[in-house]
Each structure stands twice: as structure tokens, then as C-alpha cells.
Amino acid sequence: AYALCRLTLHADPRDLDANTMLADILVERQDFLGALGYVSNLVDINPGDMGARLRMATVLAGLGCYEATEQVMSQVSPGTQLAYDNLVRWIRQMLANGAQSGNPGIRAIPTGPGQSIRKFIRPSMPARERIANLVGLILARRGDAALWDNLGSVLVEEKDLLGAEAVLWRAL
Question: How far is CA 27 from CA 72, 79, 95, 130, 152, in A?
């Protein structure tokens, strides 16, 4: 299924079924960074799709973007939350685990025009922290659909942290 969906996306990057299946496969593998691009594609293609928003909330919670997860969850209708009860409970559990561990999570980092992002990302930081801050900076610039299309298709190919970080730098 994974290979067929990837082939489908090469022909049509906006294919809803292929993006949905790839997002679900990667979430099941708990590869939230890889799933981020596919769920972003789903939300960009159809912003009113509540199921896509729940998938986005799942991925954001898995990445530790708790603030963004709460924001997305507030936009999901109560009826949809009831229909996807197990998924909503999992998202709430991820949020609770993050709060319990005292982890503030990844926050969107707004930068003003001409403001250096180097203060948020220093070479001395651990790779995971640099990646978290890069994701935060990208979240703050969420409006660029082309960025998310590119990010989703490339991140899935990356297996190492440094490769993923390089992709995020290019996307930023």
C-alpha cells in the first residue's frame, strides 16, 4: 500500500486517498515527522475536512507541538470528536503525558522581518532540539502550502536526524 500510494503521489500530489493512507501508515509507525507533510497536504486540499484536522492534531501531538495541537482540536466539531473517540483519547493522552513530564513541547516561533533565526537554532544544541525549533519556525509560517507539499514528500525519504534537519533548513 505504501509503495502504491507513493507512486500515486508522483502522478498527482493532491490525491486525497494516497495522502490519507500514507499519513495513516506513518502515524501507525509513530513516524510523526514523516506524516506531517501528508496531513498538511490533506488540510491544504480540504480545510473543512474534520478527519484531516484530527490527523493533523495527532501528528502535532506526536511531535510535541502541544500548543498547536490544542488549537487544531478546538477547530474540530464535537460530532467528529465523538465519531473518532479513540483517536481523540489518544491525542488527549499524548497531551497529558507531555504536561505530566513537564515538557513544554514545540512552540511556533514567530520571527519578525530581518530577525535572525540563529538565536533559536545553535550548532551546540542537540539534533532533536534543533529539529524541534525548526519545526516550530515552520509552524509559524504555516501559510505556505508549497512548502508543506515539498516537506512531506522529502521527509519520508530521510532516515537520519541530520538528513531530516537538512531538509527542514531547506524548507525554512
Answer: 17, 23, 16, 22, 13
Cβ proximity of 119 and 85 under 8 Å: no
Which has more confidence, 17 or 65? 17
Does residue 107 register a pLDDT over 60? Answer: yes
Q: What cell numbers appear for 92 in the block?
A: 488527549
The per-residue pLDDT for range 27-39, each reduced to its tens digit, is 998 888 788 888 8
3-state secondary structure the chain: CHHHHHHHHHHCCCCHHHHHHHHHHHHHCCCHHHHHHHHHHHHHHCCCCHHHHHHHHHHHHHHCCHHHHHHHHHCCCHHHHHHCHHHHHHHHHHHHHHHHCCCCCCCCCCCCCCCCCCCCCCCCCCHHHHHHHHHHHHHHCCCCHHHHHHHHHHHCCCCCHHHHHHHHHHHC
- Neighbouring C-beta atoms of residue 10, cutoff 10 Å: 11
